[in-house]
Structures are given as structure tokens and as C-alpha cells.
């Protein structure tokens, strides 16, 4: 199975990639930075940039011919009082956490449909519980 994970350079994304690799799957990480896990195929990709996403999917498909799963994991947050948050920081969060997920999913849908695969979205507990 060919799995694409956004943001698999650390944390939950990297742990998920590691688990899937241990089960025999091929994993591609789309992230702004390249990680150092020897068995993850890293592709530099900003999920807020549709051209980056298109190039990444083209690269994967050229090598693998299909994509069986997309795991939207890339995300970011800021802490502190909303009244002191910069507009640019808020826009960046929306761009990464929502627009990036939407754009990546849009790009993946035809391939996931063809393989009858899965799309999995990972969110933060901050989406459910307010952080003081």
C-alpha cells in the first residue's frame, strides 16, 4: 500500500509513518522540511501551495503508479491570548490546518477513488477543547 502523510517529519505523523512502514507499507511524507527517518520517502512540500502539492503527487505517481491512502496530519498552532495574536499568525494556521488539508485532499481524491483507498484526517485536541 502507498500512503501519503502530510507532516510526517516528527510527532504523530512520524510515529504513524513508522508504524505503517513496520507493516510493510510504502510511506511518503509531504512536509516543508525533510526528516531523517531512513525508510520514509520525503518530498519537500508546503501544503498551503497547490503547485507544491501537484508536483509532489506527480512525483509519487511517477514512481508508484497509485496512491492508496492519504493521512492529513500537517498542522500548527499558536498559544496565548487571542487579543494579542497577530493576524498573519492566524491566517497561517487557517492556511495550514484547513486550506492545506482541503487542497491535499482535492489532489488525492481521484487516486484514492481509483484504488478504493482511504483518507484520514488527524486533528488537534485544541479543536475540541479551548486552550486558556
What are the SSEs and their pairings?
Blueprint: E1 2-6, H1 11-22, E2 26-31, E3 41-44, H2 50-64, E4 69-72, H3 87-115, E5 118-121
Parallel strand pairs: 1-2, 1-4, 2-3, 4-5
Helix pairs in contact: 2-3
How is this structure best described in words?
- This protein has 132 residues and is of the alpha/beta class.
- Helix content is 42%, strand content 17%.
- It is built from three helices and five strands, in the order E-H-E-E-H-E-H-E.
- It has helices at residues 11-22, 50-64, 87-115, and strands spanning 2-6, 26-31, 41-44, 69-72, 118-121.
- Strands 3-2-1-4-5 form a five-stranded parallel β-sheet, sandwiched between helices.
- The mean pLDDT is 93.
Give the terminus-to-terminus CA distance: 41 Å
- Give a short account of the largest sheet: 5 strands, parallel
- Strand order within the widest sheet? 3-2-1-4-5
Which class of secondary structure composition applies to the elements? alpha/beta
Low-confidence stretches: none
Instruction: Assign a percent range to the helix content.
Output: 40-55%
- Rg (CA only): 15 Å
- Total helix count? 3
Tell me the overall shape: globular
Let me know the average pLDDT. Answer: 93
